[in-house]
Amino acid sequence: MTATVQEETQDRYAPVDPSGLPRHVAIIMDGNGRWAALRGLPRTEGHRNGVKTVRQIVRRAGELGIQYLTLFAFSSENWSRPHAEVKFLMGLLRAYVRSDLKDLRESNVRIRVIGSRDGLDPGILSLLEQAEQGTADCTGLELVLAFNYGARDEMVRAVRQLSLEVARGGKQPQEITSADIESHLDTAGLPDPDLIIRTSGEQRLSNFLLWQAAYAEFYFAPMHWPDFDCSAFEEALSCFKNRERRFGGVGAAVST
Asked: Which positions ≥6 away from 192 have C-beta within 8 Å?
């Protein structure tokens, strides 16, 4: 290895100042298919390489001390994709859990799955439950996998549960608060994301964490997900650290 390469490697993985890092990062992993198309490869190769990026980012997030990492793994709308692609994605999920679960446990990563579980294939459902149960005692990074997830569906399910409580006399409509709604969302107990990253240059939420994103900062990376390496991740974190979050108030410069 030349001195130049050594310096580049050291810079790329240099320690990051933990002060000001987001507590919760959520990522829309976009662009696997386009990454493959640009290289004349089938879409499945984009997804396969996307899993490699997942491993890198999960590892780096844990190293940096980020507490929560939510990945938009499979949306409730993704079922409309070609059957062969969906089948391949389910196979990748199985392979990821089976091959990485031991490493995740050893890295003290706890897995939580959000999204509707109604109607899921029993094999997939069992696999997701196995991942959660197998890491339940871990106390490091909490890796939240949004699978069969859609924010509107999540809110509809929450409203239905609250409606049942009202119908049973447990609560009056005028008593319902934001906290009540949050307690019925899939993310109950999780802090809202501080930073939402989307790759591939697209600038929209695509039905992801609509309620929870109320005061999140957004970062849109131009590269496709398979190219989103640790260096790109750290660039997004550095950008976040330079932002001033006001949560509807005024900035420090204005208030003084």
From this structure: 24, 212, 213, 214, 215, 216
Summarised one tens digit per residue, pLDDT across range 117-171 is: 998 899 999 999 999 999 999 999 999 999 999 999 999 999 999 999 999 987 8
Which residues does the annotation mark as catalytic? 30, 78
**Residue whose entry in the numeric block shows the structure tokens 């386009």:** 34
What's the 3-state SS for 169-219? CCCCHHHCCHHHHHHCCCCCCCCCCCEEEECCCCCCCCCCCCCCCCCCEEE
Q: Which of 210, 216, 206 is nearest to 236 (CA)?
A: 216
Distance between CA 104 and CA 111 in Å, rounded?
A: 9
HSE-up of 129 (CA within 13 Å, CB side)?
9
Q: Please write the tens of the pLDDT for every residue from 85-112.
A: 899 898 888 888 888 999 999 999 999 9
Rounded (to 5) percent helix, strand, coil in the chain: 50, 15, 40
* pTM greater than the 0.70 cutoff: yes
The token duo for 141 is: 């990074």
